[in-house]
Write a structure and sequence with these properties.
heterodimer; A: mainly alpha; two-stranded antiparallel sheet; 13 helices; about 75% helix; B: mainly alpha; 12 helices; 2 strands
């Protein structure tokens, strides 16, 4: 039964444009893109045990890289994705040198500083980023020979294809010996060091990989919004991604995406249904979801499946 | 050099005022974290609550301010007790669950404020007698800021003395250093936690009541002061009153002078300073 779950979910995601209206589809696109960002946070926070508040920085680096490429050179989506990944991973590798020496709350604060510095840079460096006005981009062409995607359903399918490919890669990385070593750092760093693992180097690679993944999400964000501005890489974005990971259940990749879905649906969809005094107060629902989740879902959404596995069916 | 100091004297005095303001917030945040590992992201909401109380009760006279202070202390006690009671069951579950809970509470608080304020900055006037400005050594200072520095400075001194010199302060310091040992000695550390949580919350709310004319209630102010006080305690060192004071004054000066000298780069200066301090001294300036 459980084995059928992943193919069924994939089939449902692929069929979505023919089943849902245009608003729901753009909501789903947003969930997939921010879900990738949450997965990159999860790679650091859930798998490796380093809580981060700075992933929006690399998300933003990827988004601006994609936007600049789109304006100056080409509309080909896979190129945006590849360039954004490489640039964001490179920036992460450089900034990570200082960050990966820290642990726990100090790591959290260093990444917060990286996030805030990047936000200010995006705001100030207006010859490149357009400052607070941001940068608009033309519609993206996913692959050579395909038409530019302008309809919500087509944009969604391009994002879904990239999402599924990246999800498979991340799942493989987590299961690889490298991923197991990262879990080892989380559970018993001293033991790993004693066994001769170059822990700092492993963490730096993990930080760069997570940065690259966040950068890929940034490129897809530009495909979706056709616009990027500093508010796309603010503190709020990092905080929401971290919270989505905690909501989903630390360490679980599908949990990170499910947590993102919960956050986006509560804030954007259900929040849009509020009327009267509370209209437009979607964040209020989000706050209530957080408080309820802490007490009702101690292991996050991923903990639910663990529960059902244990219960006799 | 002297000319430079003279030119920026007003900014530097402002920096002290903001530094002391951040101290009233950071000290509670720092001690609660140092003692029980509770990362309270709703701390900025306490400031917002205090500033809003001051806005509602200010009537241009001294009575309004005094009633505001009384109400602020009550709000702080209630808020601190509520936060301590809510986070207590999560004590064994790590920081991220507490972050999730307190972030949720702070979002709820911010939204309630948005609904009741209409999303505007609520200008809060100090008592009429302090509305003007005074001349000191050729510079014009707003009177309220000088009075604020005096009151907040005394508050900081009182907290420092209570923490470093009194028997109760010794108990708190011991609990920060080794909670289990204090418990073995027969002290109910939960009561110490509740006390520190309540005292820290009262300080944050009172900071809001007094700080409202300087940094008034507006949307997003809770997040602003929270991030700045997190920077303060990380620079100063977790669980230390001296560190919080040192960090707060440093952050106040860097932020205010930065805004005055290079307004576009103020954020770079602040977070750059934090980055450098952490890279060189990962446990903060005053490590416990």
């Amino acid at each position: 039964m459980r084995r059928l779950l992943a193919p069924a979910a994939t089939a449902g995601l692929v069929a979505a444009p023919w089943l849902l209206d245009s608003y729901a589809i753009s909501l789903a696109s947003r969930i997939l893109v921010l879900g990738l960002l949450a997965m990159s946070v999860n790679l650091l926070t859930g798998v490796t045990g380093l809580p981060t508040l700075g992933q929006a920085a690399y998300f933003g680096v990827g988004a601006y890289a994609a936007a600049l490429v789109a304006r100056a050179w080409t509309q080909i989506g896979v190129l945006h994705l590849a360039i954004a990944m490489v640039v964001a991973a490179a920036v992460a590798a450089v900034t990570g040198v200082v960050a990966v020496r820290a642990r726990g709350v100090v790591f959290l604060m260093l990444t917060l500083a990286i996030g805030e510095l990047t936000y200010s840079a995006a705001l100030q460096w207006d010859t490149v980023t357009g400052g607070s006005d941001g940068r608009a981009t033309p519609a993206v062409t996913p692959f050579w020979g395909l038409p530019a995607v302008t309809r919500d359903g087509h944009v969604y399918l391009w994002i879904l294809a990239a999402f599924l490919a990246l999800f498979a890669v991340v799942a493989a990385v987590v299961r690889s010996p490298f991923g197991l070593a990262l879990k080892g750092v989380r559970d018993n760093e001293a033991r790993l060091r004693a066994d001769g693992y170059p822990v700092t180097r492993y963490l730096l690679v993990a930080y760069a990989v997570a940065g690259g993944l966040a950068g890929a999400a940034g490129a897809l964000w530009v495909s979706l919004q056709r616009f990027v501005s500093p508010s796309d890489l603010g503190f709020q974005v990092s905080a929401m991604a971290l919270i989505a990971v905690v909501l989903g259940g630390l360490g679980s990749m599908w949990g990170a995406v499910a947590g993102t879905a919960l956050v986006v649906i509560a804030r954007d969809y259900l929040g849009g249904k509020l009327t009267g005094e509370l209209s437009g107060r979607g964040s209020l629902l989000l706050g209530l979801v957080f408080v309820a989740a802490v007490y009702l879902l101690p292991r996050g959404l991923a903990g639910l499946s663990r529960l059902s596995r244990r219960a006799p069916s | 050099m002297i000319g430079w100091f003279d030119a920026h004297a007003v900014s530097m005095v402002d920096g002290v005022a903001f530094g002391l303001l951040y101290f009233t917030l950071a000290v509670g945040l720092s001690l609660v974290f140092g003692m029980m590992d509770v990362l309270n992201l709703a701390h900025g909401t306490l400031y917002l609550a205090g500033a809003y109380v001051a806005y509602l009760l200010s009537d241009g006279g001294w009575t309004g301010l005094l009633i505001g202070l009384g109400a602020g202390i009550a709000v702080g006690l209630a808020g601190g007790a509520l936060l301590a009671a809510l986070t207590q069951p999560l004590a064994h579950r790590g920081h991220l669950d507490q972050a999730l809970l307190t972030l949720g509470l702070s979002i709820i608080g911010a939204e309630i404020f948005l609904v009741s304020s209409g999303g505007e900055t609520l200008a809060t006037d100090p008592p009429a007698a302090l509305r003007g400005s005074v001349q000191v050594a050729g510079h014009t200072y707003p009177s309220y800021r000088l009075v604020f520095i005096g009151i907040a400075g005394m508050l900081a001194l009182a907290v420092y003395l209570a923490f470093e010199r009194s028997a109760l302060g010794a108990l708190v310091r011991a609990t920060v250093a080794d909670r289990d040992m204090v418990r073995v000695l027969g002290v109910d550390t939960r009561r110490v936690l509740f006390g520190v949580f309540a005292a820290g919350s009262v300080l944050a709310v009172v900071g809001g009541v007094l700080g409202a004319p300087i940094l008034g209630p507006s949307p997003g102010i809770d997040g602003h002061v929270l991030v700045l006080s997190l920077v303060v305690i990380v620079i100063g060192g977790l669980g230390s009153v001296r560190g919080a004071l040192l960090g707060a004054l440093l952050v106040g000066e860097v932020d205010t002078l930065g805004r005055a000298i290079a307004p576009s780069y103020a954020a770079f200066l602040l977070f750059g300073a934090m980055f450098v301090v952490l890279a060189v001294r990962p446990r903060g300036l005053v490590a416990v």
